[in-house]
Amino acid sequence: MSETLIDVHDLSAGYGGIPVVRNLSISVRAGEVVALLGPNGAGKTTTLLTLSGILQPISGRVDVLGETVSGVKPEKVARRGLSHVAEDRSLFFDLSVKENLRLGLRGDRNERAASMEVALDLFPALAPLVDRRAGLLSGGEQQMLAMARGLASRPRVLLVDEMSLGLAPIIVERMLPIVRRIADETGAGILMVEQHVGLALSVADRGYVLAHGELAMEGTSAELRSNRRLVEESYLGGI
Ligand code: ATP
To answer: What are phi and psi for residue 192, nearest 5 degrees?
Structure first.
């Protein structure tokens, strides 16, 4: 079985010492795409922020790539091999596509060139736009750039927060299979927060459903798809 890259046990996390996520245990293995689902305010973003070291856990164990993130600065977690594509995409709008991508690159000159190639290979639509200012890109192109920059450091763990936010469903349908390809081709473990339940489960191996900060359901994508009614009830506060 492949290596466990994210291992969260009994996590409580939140703001100002007040937990908004409680008793959460989740894991992600190398090469897996795992969907983190649940209604607005369920605690999905809070979970990702804790994994990348931006928020400190209140209690519980959070291991990323075999080491704890407690007391570890986000830059150090990133250097270990974690990349976090945030909900706001965090692009530099005045910089070009190429310059934004360069900010994500790591390693020596050859490694940086190879990483740039891999990122542009996964998102060929960006290739003709490399000199354009990021602020002039469409929403879909900006999301591709955020993902490509996240990949430019060749992460072993990729966190993706609401990739589809503000994008037309057709763009989302095009981008989700790329998430699958990233996991298959690079062996990265991907934890993906997504509102489009059906689409997310069409590319994910497994999923967790959060409701009110706690785990309401978990299972393989096939199991969650066949329990679609229960998954949807969790969104309506039924479970
Ligand atoms: P969404 O889809 O709306 O982003 P989510 O599942 O990602 O939902 P979180 O953003 O993790 O949910 O928020 C969980 C809870 O924590 C919400 O009640 C939210 O109001 C609260 N919260 C989020 N950020 C902060 C903050 N900086 N300070 C205090 N409370 C916060």
So the answer is: -125, 120
Residues, the chain: 239
Query: Scanning the structure block, which residue is given the tokens 């689902």?
Result: 37
Distance 44 CA to ligand 1 centre (A): 8
Which ranges of the chain have pLDDT less than 70?
Answer: 236-239
- Ligand 1 atom nearest the C-alpha of 42 is 6
Closest C-alpha among 33, 35, 57 to residue 47: 57
Query: The pTM is what?
Result: 0.92
Q: Is the CB of 41 under 6 A from ligand 1?
A: yes
Q: Which atom of ligand 1 is nearest to the CA of 48?
A: 11
Which candidate, 45, 26, 34, 6, places its Cα nearest to that of 156?
6
Tokens of 206: 């497994």
Verify whether ligand 1 is closer than 6 Å to residue 36 (CB atom).
no
What is the spatial distance between Cα 81 and Cα 154, in angstroms, rounded to a whole number? 7
pLDDT, residue 172, reads 86
Residue of the CA atom closest to atom 27 of ligand 1: 15
> Cα dihedral angle (93, 129, 173, 184), rounded to 10 degrees?
-100
Rounded CA-CA distance 11/65 in Å is: 17
CB 216 within 8 A of CB 57: no
Q: How far is CA 142 from CA 52, 82, 230, in A?
A: 22, 21, 34
Distance 10 CA to ligand 1 centre (A): 19
Q: Pick from 148, 13, 137: which is nearest to 69 by CA?
A: 13
